[in-house]
Write a structure and sequence with these properties.
By secondary structure, this protein is of the alpha/beta class. It is built from eleven helices and twelve strands.
Amino acid sequence: MISHWILGPGAVGRLLAHSLAPQFAVTLIGRRALLNEQRLTTPEGKRRVQRLNALTVNQLASASQPVPGFVHITTKAMAAEAALERIASVIPSTTPLVLWQNGFLAQPRITDSWLGPVLCATTTQGAYLTGDDEVVHAGRGPTFIGDLHNRHPALAEALAAMLSQAGFTASAVGDIRQRLWQKLAINAAINPLVALHEVHNGVLRHGAYSARVDAVVKEVAAIMQAEGIQPPKGKQSEHAWLALVWQVVENTANNKASMLQDVEARRPTERSAILGPLMESAKRHQLPCEELVALDLALAKKETAYAS
């Protein structure tokens, strides 16, 4: 039986563990101890309890675990490299990694530094935690798997089949870089604003929020064009990106974005992974990004306020 290690027991990590555990050997790994008995609430409101093999990083070194077929890194983007370093000594350097981070920060760095295959996943599965023993599966959506250089299509196909068997709608793709940038563009227009104002996604449709979304998308659309990234539907244009963002806002109106969850929990946000690559690209291509810079500064100020 193929073993899956899941490094990072946050919302996505626990949803992944609940989904894979009935059919595969799963080990959920975190920095602190979790209850082995974990609860999942489905999008339909049903609750189920499942025993998960949950270990700390320290316990992993002394526990007798099967060599993992895949290590899924489901931490926040800024913690991914450090998390991998903590377990690198107990896994073969050829172990396939799967990166589930938002943004475009950890993916190129780990791809360049890890000897084994590195797959990237982008998903619209929605989930959030309600405590140390429960995750809510807030909504279903497609998951795409691939690697940045399209060197491991067979491995991506195999993982997509396993995830689909576990209840994810997963597909292997050869353009994961494009899809990661597309999601980055959408996240940049939604996540920082809902986190700053502590509102659900749907509130962005109203009043002054909508004008701010338009202003952010205008900058993002120009950056996407410079990077050669097209929206999933339609040709490259500011209007196409704006239509896409508003469609996502509509589809996720009641969702609580991951960055908002971070703010509510008084944790550092993923602003560097989401806004950072866009601001760097704007600088390279000599494009304006005043709105993106303002969002980054405002989030940094908010994080500083609740960290002090």
